[in-house]
Amino acid sequence: MNKTTINEFRILGFENIHSLKTMLFLLFLIIYMLTLFANFTIISFVSISHHMHSPMYFFLSHLSLNDILLSTTIQPEMLQIILREGSSISQAGCFTQFYFFSVPTVNECLLLTVMSYDRYLAICNPLRYSTIMDLKLCILLATFSWVCGLVFAFPHIVLLYKMTFCESNTINHFYCDLPPLLRLSCSDTSASETVNFFNSIPLVFLPFIFISLSYINIIVAILRISTSAGRQKAFSTCSSHLTVVCMYYGTLVFNYVIPSKGHYLGLQKMISVCYTIMTPLLNPLIYSVRNEEIKK
Known about the structure:
This protein is about 75% helix and about 5% strand. It has helices spanning about 20-50, 55-85, 90-125, 125-130, 135-150, 155-160, 180-185, 190-225, 230-255, 265-290, 290-295; strands at about 10, 85-90, 170. The model has no long low-confidence stretch (mean pLDDT about 85).
């Protein structure tokens, strides 16, 4: 039996929102504008303020740039999907969106890992901190994170272009992600699933373990500080980062571990909103609220 090859996808977005689409459009538009404003503000502060020329703020500016890329990849297209209650996208456009979604997703995992290492050195090895975490190492670590994002996302695109998509062309999501694309393929998807599994080890699980070990050492070091004021000051320097790590990894892991069929699809969309839309907005706000330099 002949099968029709699909060269265009239809993204459903959020279903049954007829009476709410205008309100949702305005809400997500405001969130997108605030996200751009907040993250560009962080980058501007780090660039122009001499008091913020330190490794922590250097990595924070890269995190803000990464969040701008993530938001811009997802939200403009999502706003169109909300207004039209679904939208068509070419195969090339879909794969391109997935690639530029994958890059900041990978990069954020690695940047959060680098930032935890920076906090570890600052609190557990303060006397050697400025010697170890110099500008050269900062640039090297940030460049490594971005290059890994660009490189590790590429094999999926190659494999997707080799696949054949037939019968249904409907993506039950609000952007092009790997799991819904693999469900639509009538080719063998084992290669892509294998690449995804092996990529998750160095890009998700090892960074998470490294961050966890770093914070165990940080907490032990903070508890050894004799004064309560000293403990509070030390904890305030890393509490913002720890909050962001818990929020990002919690939603990311939960979304890709739970089943992806039936009534879980709606839940996955909500979780996806958290780390693709809310996290880029909340990151600069979380770092600003507890940071005296940014407040000043």
